[in-house]
Amino acid sequence: MSAAALGHKAEHGHGAGHADSQADYLEKTRRNRLGMWLFFVSEAFLFIGLLAARFYLWVDESGEMVRPDLAQVPGLAVTVILLLSSYFMNRAEISIANNKRRDFLTSLIITAILGTAFLVGVIVWEWGMFPSIVEGHLKPSDGVFGAVVFAMTGMHALHVLSGSVLILNVWWLGRKGHFSPEQHWGVEAVAIYWHYVDLVWIFFYPAIYLIGHAYGAH
Predict the structure, then answer these.
(1) Hey, is 211 helix, strand or coil?
(2) Do 29 and 22 contact (CB within 8 A), yes or no?
(3) Domains in the chain and their CATH numbers?
(4) Helical (H) or strand (E) element with 207
(5) Burial of 124 (0-12, 13-18, 19+ CB in 10 A)
(6) Are 207 and 51 in contact (CB under 8 A)?
(7) How far apart are CA 152 and CA 201, in angstroms?
(8) What is the Cα–Cα distance from 147 to 155, expressed in whole angstroms?
(9) Inter-CA distances, 52 with 44, 152, 203, Å
(10) pTM of the entire structure?
(11) Directed axis angle between helix 185-209 and helix 72-97, to 10°?
């Protein structure tokens, strides 16, 4: 067999091996994606339960829907921050799919910063953890209003915190050369998780701040 023929055979074998590897990766990604959506379905029961508690408990003596008298500006501000973070998370996923690594890493950092800003907003303004800065906030002991607000925002904040940690982990791996346009399931998984958490807040925000007439909770 000639050298040219041997070279062609080796190249063909390498190409077949690469194709098999990519096919295995795509099959694993398909299974992982299915598992992730099953996880989201189980998480939905948790968030739906919290929403059900809110609508069942926040009614007055006449059965009319009420809500605590919370400041509107902080709630709107953290909502805008979280939605903006979802844009940059999507930008990060698109960037790695197009092999724009610098934009990919930059977008991840911006997303993590915005996620942290959301958490700070919830802790400082909505939870009133620093009364010297902001006064007159609900406490967990303030009846059904305090219990539900802290349950809903606390559970959501926990998911934002875990998502921020995952984003920073993906950023660290990306700096070390991980992920490519063909293989970036880790980025996609974190992006889906982040968008899911943002979607939950889209339901939580009006439930806490907008639906029902404001009732003096203090």
Answers:
(1) coil
(2) no
(3) 42-215 (1.20.120.80)
(4) helix 185-209
(5) middle
(6) yes
(7) 9
(8) 12
(9) 12, 11, 12
(10) 0.83
(11) 160
Alpha-carbon distance of 30 to 20, in angstroms, equals 15
Task: Report the alpha-carbon distance of residue 112 to residue 118 in Å, rounded.
Answer: 10
DSSP per-residue string spanning 57-123: HSB-TTS-BEEE---HHHHHHHHHHHHHHHHHHHHHHHHHHTT-HHHHHHHHHHHHHHHHHHHHHII
CB count within 10 Å of CB 123 equals 14
**Hunting for tokens 């067999």 — which residue is that?**
1
Contact 139, 128 (CB under 8 A): yes
**From residue 144, how far is each of 5, 126, 153, 155, 160 by CA, in Å?**
79, 16, 14, 16, 24
Residue whose pair of structure tokens reads 């041997």 in the numeric block: 6
Backbone dihedral angles phi then psi of residue 213, each to the nearest 5 degrees = -85, 145
Write out the H or E segment, with its range, that includes residue 8: helix 3-57
33-39: long-range contacts at Cβ-Cβ below 8 A with a sequence spacing of 24 or more?
33/185, 33/188, 33/189, 36/189, 36/192, 36/193
Could you read off the pLDDT of 59-110 as tens digits, one per residue?
888 888 999 888 888 889 999 999 999 999 999 999 999 999 999 999 999 9
What pLDDT, in 10s, does the model give residues 114-163?
999 999 998 877 776 655 445 557 777 788 898 999 999 999 999 999 99
